[in-house]
User: Which sequence fits this backbone?
């Protein structure tokens, strides 16, 4: 047997299943004990050090910690459905009941270290980098095309799930650490930004492009077919305030759940989600699907979009092919037609939420960065030229 290697922090993280399952390895038992002692501000700060946005995550996190919770393994009274500790909601408890936590947060550095860092995009990735670097003396500037920082937290999460006041508060804590935010500035050229003499550039622009639907009739009926994340952003900014009575949402992820529930609130009376996969294989969290169904939104699975019907450019409905899942010896899934007649679903609007992808048209291909076959930058790279700067993507 080899001696236990306690030099690696992962050894201690793995001892606590929920903490290991959390991508940020948040010390869950520690902050739950603090909540039990009604030390809500201390519990909030434990969270803040690990995941930066406790109040936001307490409302929107995908909760990978909860399936790993030991409570679910030892609880027998619920039979086939043991319940874990409500870790995510306890995070919100700490955020909602805390007092002012700023006394426990780092202050702006008294002296700068002479290094300048640009963060492109004002979402959670860039804001986390900024929060960690600014107190160490780095001059950190965060750029975003929108007037307020927050990224997709602000523009894609519906207000009924995440109030803007919570975003303002927690983004404000980051900016108060000595971070400078330049809103309404879209970065259209990485080469031009590098020419400004930054010591490092962090690219935190996320996955800003929604995948489109490619079926007959899509272009002809384009006026009533909307990319889900763009539509949610338009709702957030108040550009969209209504939608047709009959709405089809395509996709099985959490974005699709946000789209269908938002459509219901904007006047959709017949809203349905239609997804290619089976209900159990949908990427949306179980509680997100439950919330949609509780609002009277049916989820129809194993249906593949075939075509869009329209009348002189105005959408009238969509045709779907019914399929079933078959698996080969290696467990790979294949969707095969059942042979049943295609289904027609009438609609006034379609929201396409079938996935998102990165988009870097503003990064020139002649500045020394490596791109893979999908046109995406490879990991973190050194910058070209004789100036010792670095560029990394998050």
Assistant:
């Amino acid at each position: 047997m080899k001696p236990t290697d306690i030099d690696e922090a992962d050894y201690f993280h793995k001892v606590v299943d929920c903490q290991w399952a959390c991508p940020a390895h948040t010390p869950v038992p520690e902050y739950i004990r603090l909540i039990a002692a009604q030390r809500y501000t201390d519990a909030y700060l434990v969270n803040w050090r690990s995941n930066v946005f406790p109040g936001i995550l307490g409302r929107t996190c995908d909760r990978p910690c909860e399936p790993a919770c030991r409570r679910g393994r030892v609880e027998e009274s619920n039979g086939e459905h043991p319940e874990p500790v409500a870790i995510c909601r306890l995070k919100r408890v700490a955020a909602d009941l805390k007092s002012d936590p700023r006394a426990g947060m780092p202050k702006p550095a008294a002296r700068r270290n002479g290094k300048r860092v640009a963060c492109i995009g004002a979402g959670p990735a860039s804001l986390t980098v900024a929060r960690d670097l600014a107190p160490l003396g780095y001059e950190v500037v965060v750029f975003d095309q929108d007037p307020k920082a927050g990224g997709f937290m602000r523009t894609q999460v519906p207000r009924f799930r995440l109030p803007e006041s919570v975003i303002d508060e927690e983004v404000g804590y980051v900016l108060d650490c000595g971070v400078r935010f330049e809103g309404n500035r879209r970065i259209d050229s990485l080469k031009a930004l590098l020419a400004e003499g930054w010591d490092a550039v962090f690219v935190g622009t996320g996955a800003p492009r929604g995948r489109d639907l490619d079926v007959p009739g899509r272009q002809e009926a384009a006026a009533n077919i909307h990319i889900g994340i763009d539509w949610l952003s338009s709702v957030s900014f108040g550009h969209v305030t209504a939608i047709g009575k009959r709405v089809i949402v395509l996709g099985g992820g959490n974005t699709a759940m946000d789209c269908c529930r938002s459509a219901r609130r904007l006047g959709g009376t017949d809203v349905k989600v239609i997804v290619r996969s089976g209900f159990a294989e949908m990427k949306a969290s179980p509680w997100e699907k439950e919330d949609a169904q509780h609002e009277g939104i049916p989820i129809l699975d194993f249906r593949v979009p075939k075509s869009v019907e329209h009348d002189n450019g105005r959408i009238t409905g969509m045709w779907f092919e019914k399929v079933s899942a078959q698996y080969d010896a290696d467990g790979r899934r294949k969707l095969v037609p059942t042979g049943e007649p295609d289904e027609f679903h009438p609609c006034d609007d379609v929201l396409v939420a079938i996935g998102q992808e990165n988009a870097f048209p503003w990064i020139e291909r002649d500045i020394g960065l490596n791109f893979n076959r999908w046109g995406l930058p490879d990991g973190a790279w050194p910058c070209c030229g004789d100036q010792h700067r670095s560029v990394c993507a998050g």
User: Anything to note?
Assistant: Confidence is low (pLDDT under 50) at residues 380-393. The longest strand covers residues 314-327. The chain has three domains: 9-104, 116-207+358-393, 210-355. The chain is about 30% helix and 20% strand.
